[in-house]
Amino acid sequence: MGAFVAKRLGQAVIVAWGALTLVFIIVRVVPGDPAKLILGPDASADQLKHVRSDFGLDHPLWRQYLEHLGGVLHGDLGDSWRLGGSALGDTLERFPATLTLSLVALVLTILLGFPLGMLCARRPGKVLDLLVSTGSLVGQAVPSFWLGIVLILLFARELGWLPATADGSLAGVLLPAFTLALPFIGWLARLVRNGALEEGAKDYVRTARAKGVPEGLVQYVHVGRNIAVPVVTVLGLLMGNFIANAVIIEVVFSWPGIGSLMVDAITNRDYAVVEAAVLTMTVSYIALNLLVDVVYFALDPRLTPENA
Amino acid sequence: MSSTVEEVAGATEATPVARLRGVHIGFGAPGRERPVVRGVELDLVPGRVTALVGESGSGKSLTTLALMGLLPGGARVSAGSVEIDGQDTAGFTDAQWRRLRGPKIAMVFQDPMAALNPSFTVGWQVAETFRRHQGVSHRTARARTIELMRTVGIPDAEHKYHSYPHEFSGGMRQRAMIAMALALEPEVLLADEPTTALDVTVQAQILRLLTTRQAEARMAMLLVSHDLGVVARVAQHVAVMYAGRIVEAGTLDEVYTTPAHPYTRGLLDAMPDPGRPGRLVPIEGQPPAPGHLPAGCAFAPRCRFATEVCRTDDPATLPVPGRGTSTGHVAACHHSARILGTEPEARS
């Protein structure tokens, strides 16, 4: 197991380096001069030159890149031009908000998607099953910013049940989390449904019934445990998805996470903050995948690091 | 051997714990179902092993599952009754069935690897029976399970409790399944081809375990098998199924030494017998597909005794002629008398 984790960590370093490099190139290829944005339209050529040299922007790209990489290795992703502080510090300060939002979305997806899928599997092809499979397609086709705005109008403005923006309360997280989760509830339900139908036809299910185990436990314990591996796989992917999708949702809901931070940073060509935010997302995505792989071994006793 | 038959003759006086009365099982919408099992009569009596013999697809497994109320989706008992302790189970709720499964009637399945849940430890799965029915704590259930695993011959049970099915050998898995079935000392034990998926060397051990426990606890046991050799070693009563019907039933001795149905006769002729060397005689042709039964007797197209009446009239199940002292030897054949008087088909 140790060797398995070590190998995965090695791969993770390569992926993180790749993401870092890509973002470094992309932010610099996109038009827009940070010095002009910092100083405003009236800045003189001298002032611009001064600022550029302050931030090392007058060096050739390869030198900027190497300096950037060297900084990353020392845990220094540079300073924010706009906020003045350490870019990584700013990002990590905002990260818990994004994590909270994503986790609540994940819990909502599981709590609604799993039982829904189990219900569909009981009567495949019946009304609920068809509704869920249609709903999951529609849900994934709807753009999340639009869904967010519709939900704000409905639940915050018309009904007044939930606050539209972050106010630090549990209720405040519900609306953005639900917006994140909604497209994936039907998706998870479909996955659970298909797994439950496939597993439900297996002999061990009949054995459980032959022991006098109540149907609910047969489904949720005996079948549920066997569809856990694919479900955990997609939940890991989903969590990564949520952290990435949060970029849009956080702006719509003014949620103080790294998504809205990143959008601000992009607008202001705050290179260091963009890079720090992307690196944070990349690392959390990799960490999630590693966590999922380790959880597999706990879920399926037949798996070992050798045959995985 | 003869003493066994006498014992059985006495045992038939006992009341059956479970019985099937004219049971039809069909797939499909009510009124338009394809019949797969047709009018099965079966008595399961304490202390007696009844064997249900037939080819795959003859309806043996469905008949057995009907006794557990575990027919697969789409199949249902469309006529007749499944009685347990003299009670018709037709209107049983899930909860009523659940109370019977385990303490009253239990089942050992064909393929223990598939029948065990791959994601839980063997011990946990056996212990579940205790937890569901006796409401005992995990700790008590574990203690009882380890004890039980020992009695079915699983060595080092304390340690093996925590093993997963894939870590067990085939024979050990079937022992675990037997432990699960015997946990609550059921009165009826159903065994659906319990040794078919096992190595030949292990088959005998598993059979011995089943019959020993059956005899000790005087359980009524139904052994589903297509292996006439296994049946001869274990059963006292035999019922032969063909295309969803029981075509012949009686004591082991009656059915094996004086078969009155040409299908039984064919099965026995197709079995190796040291006393009758030579090539085995196969039954020509294939059994009919369910829902595509020929008019008249379902076996007629493959039967060398068949006459005109066989192709038009499905024979009733009647006592075999000339068996006054019979314990219930019956056959569904127009020509039983003729078949009784015929020598087995010559082997070449």
UniProtKB/TrEMBL annotation, chain A:
Cellular component per GO, a single term: plasma membrane
Keyword Metal-binding annotated: no
Keyword RNA-binding in annotation: no
Primary location: membrane
Domain ABC transmembrane type-1: 95-292
SUPFAM superfamilies tied to this protein: MetI-like (SSF161098)
Entry keywords, A to Z: Cell membrane, Membrane, Transmembrane, Transmembrane helix, Transport
Pfam families, alphabetized: BPD_transp_1, BPD_transp_1_N
An example molecular function term from Gene Ontology annotations: dipeptide transmembrane transporter activity
Transmembrane segments: 12-30, 95-118, 130-156, 168-189, 227-256, 276-299
PANTHER family named among the record's database cross-references: DIPEPTIDE TRANSPORT SYSTEM PERMEASE PROTEIN DPPB-RELATED
Family indicated by similarity: Belongs to the binding-protein-dependent transport system permease family.
The protein's name in its UniProt record: Peptide ABC transporter permease
TrEMBL record, chain B:
Domain ABC transporter: 20-268
Record's protein name: ABC transporter ATP-binding protein
SUPFAM superfamilies noted in UniProt: P-loop containing nucleoside triphosphate hydrolases (SSF52540)
Source domain of life: Bacteria
One cellular-component annotation, GO: plasma membrane
Annotated localization: Cell membrane
Taxonomic source organism: Actinoallomurus iriomotensis
Main location class: membrane
InterPro entries: AAA+_ATPase, ABC_Ni/Peptide_Import, ABC_transporter-like_ATP-bd, ABC_transporter-like_CS, Oligopep_ABC_C, P-loop_NTPase
One Pfam entry name: oligo_HPY
Cross-referenced CDD domains: ABC_NikE_OppD_transporters (cd03257)
Annotated GO MF terms: ATP binding; ATP hydrolysis activity
Topology with respect to the bilayer: Peripheral membrane protein
Keyword Transport among UniProt keywords: yes
Keyword ATP-binding included in the entry's annotation: yes
Record keywords, A-Z: ATP-binding, Cell membrane, Membrane, Nucleotide-binding, Transport
One GO-annotated biological process of the protein: peptide transport
Family in the record: Belongs to the ABC transporter superfamily.
